[in-house]
Amino acid sequence: MKKIIALFLVLTALSCSSEDQVNQEVSAVGDSASVLDGKMLSFKNEELFVKEYSDLASLDSDGLKNWVSSKKLVSLLNTSDDSASIEGDVLSESRIIYSDALKSILNSESKVKINGNVLWLNERTFYLLSKNQINKTPEQLVAEKEKLEVYGSLLSVSSPVKNSTGRDVIPNENRIKTFVSGEENFNVPGSRIRLVLDLYNETIVLNNVIQSSKMYLRSTLQYRSCSTWRCTWKEASNSRVIDTYSLSGSNSVLWKFSLFQMATSATQTSLIATWNPANLPAPTAPTAWYTNFNVSGPFKIYVGNGPYHEVQLSWY
């Protein structure tokens, strides 16, 4: 009983704190330069696009939803659902995961306007749309994407070398590493529960220049759901506390960490590190800026009346 009361107090305190933080952060992001232009957001230039994206990356799920609502945008965040990709017992690390920050900026057709140009994101490629293509549906654009002009990418790159266009590459750009904790780790009476952690990089390249590179952690609690024909894993709504304060990295000067503790009952995508070479003096060899992210330490989760469960994180 004492544990239950203690957990209730923790959840209440964190919830109130989170609500105050959301209000403050949405107000700060509300001064952004993006405006709704028809059915998509419009930015004057790439710098303002990246700034808004970076500001949104620090918000939690409620903060992002409030921001999208304030923009009156029908966003990809509110219309997409990739839960089916993690329903199986075995999960592919070749999955494409967009951050909630990026999905908040893109409209439901994955389009955005920057400097007067309409861009369409399909899988890992940004395409520049002509006036005759702007109003075409994603299905129509897919059918003719070989004819579209490539403007940028979220390409998955593993080697720390220059790519075919000659730009520098951050090792393991846009890759995913997934950690699955089985049901034996959770004491939830009457349920079979597992935890899926997706640690992933999102590097945005526009005009052949890295505009941003961030590391995100998505935590999803699932329960086992069985029908006559098969069993799958569905999103669970158990109250929980998640904690990343014990994480660290040896290159934390170049990769600025953003650690957190929060109460939630839903899937959370959280920023944990940002590639930040701008605040460092120029190195003798510029390639020194393009170093691999690394992380060590446990991700902690407290579900129901059970003890903390820890997942030791690492990167490639």
UniProtKB/TrEMBL annotation:
Residues 1-18 form the signal peptide. Keywords: Signal. This is DUF5689 domain-containing protein. The lineage of its organism: Bacteria, Pseudomonadati, Bacteroidota, Flavobacteriia, Flavobacteriales.
